[in-house]
Amino acid sequence: MTHSSPSAPSTTTNTLTPATNCTLPAAAAVAAGNGSTAAAPTATAFKTVLETIDPATITYTSTDLDDPVPEISQPHTRHVLDQAAHILRAGQVVGMPTETVYGLASNALDSIAAQRIFKAKNRPQDNPLIVHVSSLKMLRSILKDNIIPDVYDDLIRTYWPGPLTLLFPRSSLIPNEITCGQATVAVRFPSHPITRALISACDRPLAAPSANSSGKPSPTLASHVMDDLAGKIPMVIDGGQCSFGIESTVVDGLRVPPAILRPGGITFEQIRQVKGMEKVQVYKKHFTDAAMEQAPTTPGMKYRHYSPEAEVVLVEYIKTEDSPVSNGSGPTGQYGRILKEIEKLKQEGKKRFGILRTSFTTTTPSAAAAAAVITHPNGTTHLQDDREDENVIEFPLGQGSKPEDVARELFRGLRYLDDQKVDCIFVEGISEDDEGLAVMNRVRKAASRTISLESTEFL
């Protein structure tokens, strides 16, 4: 594995053009052979290259989305993008940062390249991929009759580029491997500068699910991608921690009324404020569709996802008319029940436990108490109390009243606690308002068990 840091900033600014003559890393060259259309992918071992890009070295000075051109301020950034683009154009795959989670990208118009995504991730063959574009011009080029449906005009104007995926009628350009035979294709215009610039460098749309082994928590750091896929893919681009931390919201505006098929970075509350989306429904909350679940039109609908090796247990309040759920329930509620559950599991022989906390109170310790401050991997701290046990590891996700913070840390916390070899991970649930809907969607899919509390049980 090789790691390269960004070179010193250049005083010149360049616009990025599609890669044409950069050198393919040796492992990728072997795998690509004479072109990706020659044969179905076979097992290949890679010496995965890890390259770092500072997202700040890529800028967009125009707000025009029809055909925006990135400006590159470092030769190193250009070199890495060109290298990655060449790998992708040769039919291989690359791990890349996005604003949601890290993605595993391939040429979305190449069926063999798409198969390499499924193989590297061990992804079920009936789980569709999302296509990523870098311009509205590119979007039109892959749609039926090159037309963007009018129903999406205001959503695109408001939330693209960003963590929002839209369903479109599929054209003949999109391989079956991308849509898993569905009549629609899911497309997103990402906001992360590295993602946008890489798509532009390829001059092709990129298919990109999360860059993890299927079923595992999604990666929000390049190190997570390396943990899962090193040796299975040629290259990973490190662009730092993902800003949203959960996958994009998926909207089907072709349906009447429109539907959110997967909650994500753009909330239900935000979407229903957009013209034409006032009656939008949320799948599994406002309606269900057994046929859709068996033949999903978008990722995240059918299979269990986001699960670490340890058992995950969700501890949440049930919402009643007299006792609505509140974020950040405090140590006497969810936390107290978790501690009781841990004592019970110890009697069953389990020894090590993790807790994803959403009820920490922020406090500044006095100098005398400084020695009792616990510092967590994400930089947050809390004051140690007498109940703390070295075999109970706590990871603070943030205040439950700030679900956007919880979303950013959720997958990172699951992976961290799994790395600590805990037997069981408890998650303090939060309200499903705003980003909380997406957070709880992911936690429910990860959890094998749920403990429901009445809000007065421990008060």
Automatic annotation (TrEMBL):
It catalyses: L-threonine + hydrogencarbonate + ATP = L-threonylcarbamoyladenylate + diphosphate + H2O. Its EC number is 2.7.7.87. GO terms for cellular component: mitochondrion. It is an enzyme of class 2 (transferase). Signal peptide: none annotated. Transmembrane segments: none annotated. One of its GO terms (molecular function) is double-stranded RNA binding. Keywords: ATP-binding, Cytoplasm, Nucleotide-binding, Nucleotidyltransferase, Transferase, tRNA processing. GO terms for biological process: regulation of translational fidelity; telomere maintenance; tRNA threonylcarbamoyladenosine modification. It is found in: Cytoplasm. Gene3D superfamilies: DHBP synthase, Threonylcarbamoyl-AMP synthase, C-terminal domain. The keyword tRNA processing applies. Residues 78-266 form the YrdC-like domain. InterPro entries: DHBP_synth_RibB-like_a/b_dom (IPR017945), Sua5-like_dom (IPR006070), Sua5/YwlC_C (IPR038385), Sua5_C (IPR005145), TC-AMP_synthase_SUA5 (IPR050156). It comes from the Eukaryota. Required for the formation of a threonylcarbamoyl group on adenosine at position 37 (t(6)A37) in tRNAs that read codons beginning with adenine. Likely catalyzes the conversion of L-threonine, HCO(3)(-)/CO(2) and ATP to give threonylcarbamoyl-AMP (TC-AMP) as the acyladenylate intermediate, with the release of diphosphate. Required for normal translation, by ensuring translation fidelity at the level of codon recognition, appropriate translation initiation selection and maintenance of reading frame. Also involved in telomere replication. Belongs to the SUA5 family. This is Threonylcarbamoyl-AMP synthase. It comes from Linnemannia elongata AG-77.
